[in-house]
Specification:
The protein is α+β, with helices and mostly antiparallel strands and 484 residues long. It is 27% helix and 17% strand. Helix 2 runs antiparallel to helix 3, helix 10 packs across helix 12 and helix 11 runs antiparallel to helix 12. It catalyses: 2 H2O2 = O2 + 2 H2O.
Amino acid sequence: MKNTTLTTSWGAPVGDNQNSMTAGSRGPTLLQDVHLLEKLAHFNRERVPERVVHAKGAGAHGYFEVTNDVSAYTKAAFLSEKGKRTPLFVRFSTVAGENGSADTVRDPRGFAVKFYTEEGNYDIVGNNTPVFFIRDAIKFPDFIHTQKRHPVTHLKNPDAVWDFWSLSPESLHQVTILMSDRGIPATLRHMHGFGSHTFKWVNAEGTGYWIKYHFKTEQGVKNLSPELAAQIAGENPDYHTEDLFNAIEAGDFPAWKLYVQIMPLEDADTYRFDPFDVTKVWSQKDYPLIEVGRMVLDRNPENYFAEVEQATFSPGTLVPGVEVSPDKMLQGRLFAYADAHRYRVGANHNALPINRPKCPVHHHQRDGQMRPDSNGGGSVYYEPNSFGGPAEAPQHKPAPYEVNGLADSTPYDENDHYTQAGDLYRLLSVEERARLVQNIARAMKPVTRDDIKQRQIEHFYKADPEYGTAVAEALGLPVPAAAK
């Protein structure tokens, strides 16, 4: 079949659909990349009114208590002293399935936390995995399309899933995690959570640090076998939702310890992996986990729709002392998540009770559909003004960081997609490796084209020859000569 030229919705040819336009190879992303903005904006409007991703979810209220003084690294008020408690709301979710899908499918789990701090809300919007399938937001709509249904059959499409992954080798690390035992958590209480992206903490003196978040479950990590997961999916598709609700109702409050990895800013230029690439992790030998606090969930929602369904999270919901990094996937999410909520819930989604900050709010945003509050009353509605209205506070301006390079759509400088996936494979026990290969083979057998299978086998082989050979044998295919 002859290839046709990919175009924008208005017919202009697209020169690069793999990399967003950034200031230098590391970023940040440029607003002038109209192709990226069009893809993300259109993608956010493809489903009504269900979330495009993370549609099936469960949530609970709780609190966060600081257990270690981290004020040397961040001026965030809610982390300012040991013993301080902050109310929060958490939403867990599957990623690809619809609102009525089963809880026990093989899928990453969303792990979103909303802290109601005295300086405004702060959202950590991550997953139960420390990495992701792609590292540039321009590929996100295409990736999620492969996880959805075929436009003709309306069935899940393994050809699309593995075709995309095999053509996107950066996905290998996350694919290995997904196909391992960790791909199906036993319950929402028995899994870790991660911020996944790199963020920046800034202290009171203005010194910055790159950081990564790790929520470690106090219940221990437990997973389901594919056979038991399939049985539960048929008998009780809402198993995880029910388990979380019943545990809290019974007073068995689930808890997680929050840790961070901290990297000096200058290390970003010399570390052996690009620290802003969300398909990579930082070695804990290089940057050990530092305890921050403890999250406890102790109250169920009173109304699922009002709280869980209408809850909106965005990695761009920040407080002083927490800033973003030039991570390209994060940069795209800063726009896409808030834009999705404006479309799905409405322009005033952040004024709903579940999303509304618990501190005073003063801004000049007015009107819009379904305004649930006083709409600012008769207060000043613009800035700058001469009438004592809300004004900017320069002391809270984000700390600057240096950018350089050409405005171009270039990938990250580091293109090693295999080392960390191979390291993960070699960390697994013999039994865990066997189950990993079995899960991969089960998922890949429905793929109708052998060239897609062999292209993916080549990636497994490059991560570890044993890994690739085992998958090839399970599929009854040879290891491609190019892999060797």
